[in-house]
User: Fold this.
Amino acid sequence: MSSLSELVPDGGVKAERLVLRELAHRIDDELALAIDLVSQAVDRCDGTEVRTTLASVQDRLEGHAQLHHALQMPQFTTTVDLAAYLLQLCRSISRSSLEDKGIALSLLLRPLKMNSERCWLLGMMVFELITRAVRRVSHGGAGAIRLEVWLTATSIACCIMDNGSSDDSRYREEDDSIVEVLAARLNGAVDVRAGPDGFRTVVNIPR
Assistant:
């Protein structure tokens, strides 16, 4: 598969950002159109069971739209609160991907002012790690995922824990995943450990 820099004629960072923003806008438009179509179908439908099903589909689509918005690259460099950003992101993840599976997501966050792009990159890692965890944990009310963020004098630690299978061979197949690439962008490191109670991944990045 070609990289984004290979697809952009001049290979410049500005051009890559422009392509990503344009793709994000188009996805936003398509999701909004799909939500509107389902909403119209709900209004026209007379059957209670069908209306309930369509309303559930609409809610899922709205959850995915919120998640997509939360994961978009920031247009401007600003200072944001990491805890507030991760809270919004995790609520969107829960609504779009966890609630219907009965998977509980708990958070322990610390307020921290951060550059918006660094915050976005960390959020992308959190999303990927939670997505991995969902594939491991049990569904139907038994699955549990926890996100914790703590600070040291020199670093920010972001930890994802789950009660899924501790078969670490699955992780080795994903060693070259987006988490490692994003961590490198932030001069960070990723530590993965599997134990009898589940899986634990810690991302450490400089403050």
Observations:
- Residues 13-44 form the longest helix (32 residues).
- Strands lie at 79-81, 104-108, 113-115, 144-151, 155-162, 189-195, 198-206.
- The radius of gyration is 19 Å.
- Residues 1-73 form one domain.
